Input
Amino acid sequence: MPEVRPLAVFDIDGVLADVAHRLRFLDGRPKDWDGFFAAAPADPPLAEGVALAREAATDCEVVYVTGRPEQCRADTVDWLRRHGLPQGRLEMRRGRDRRPARVAKPELLALIARDRTVAVVVDDDEQVCDAYER
Output
């Protein structure tokens, strides 16, 4: 039976990808979520997060849990590959799910962690981290 490594779970936006250049899409009312996510392929990588994901991959299976919607999958997979991130499962919001990340992301984590050990979770949203701990 193959060894089952623990999981290292990483958020993308704000941890691996610098979203500062696209925050302008969220300034107005209503927020332009389509524009915000469409600009994601141009995100520069955040060196500290990328290094942490690469380091975690030596001992863990890397999984990405993101608030990005499913329609961003191809762009996100390409972005991860272009920036040398470890291969790993990618969990994203379904359809037009606009629930707060503190609600949506713990549901995604619960799906992947139901029969696995989670060694580390890295997310930049304090509310999401608190929800994960609960």
Remarks:
- The two ends are 32 Å apart (CA to CA).
